[in-house]
Amino acid sequence: MSSSDLNASGSNNGSLGAKADGVVKQAQTFSREMKVQATDLAQSATDVVKAQVGDLSESAKAMASDAGDSCARSVTEQKAVGADYVGNVANIIRRTAYEFRR
């Protein structure tokens, strides 16, 4: 081997090293960019989930409120029906007592 062959191969190794450094830098840059994009995506997903949970919570509150109102109306109606029934029974007892007095 001549000294020119060594220089050429040494030069090739230097060039190969520079190419490898370039590839490493590109990979690092790509990695950083992917990390930023992944972080942004995770934040966006978190924001969407929070908004949907908030909407779901509001819907559940409204549904519970509606159910409570419906239940209260039903109880009020049942109380009225019960009061009418008791009133009718009281009238029957009064009429019966009146008839027995005669």
Q: State the major sheet.
A: none
Query: Overall pLDDT, averaged?
Result: 86
* Estimated helix fraction: over 70%
Q: Which word captures the global form?
A: rod-shaped
H-E order? H
Number of β-strand runs: 0
Gap from first CA to last CA:
146 Å
Helix count, DSSP H or I runs of 4 or more residues: 1
- How much of the residues is beta strand, in percent? under 5%
Low-confidence stretches: 1-11
What Rg is obtained from the alpha carbons, in whole angstroms? 43 Å
Structural class: mainly alpha
Describe this protein's structure.
The protein is an all-alpha fold. 97% of the residues lie in helices and 0% in strands. It contains 1 helix and no strands. The longest helix is centred in the middle third of the chain and has 99 residues, at 3-101. Mean pLDDT is 86; it is low at 1-11.
Key features?
97% helix; 102 residues; 1 helix; disordered N terminus; rod-shaped; single chain; mainly alpha
Structure in a nutshell:
The chain has 102 residues and is mainly α.
Could you outline the blueprint of secondary structure elements for this entry?
Layout: H1 3-101
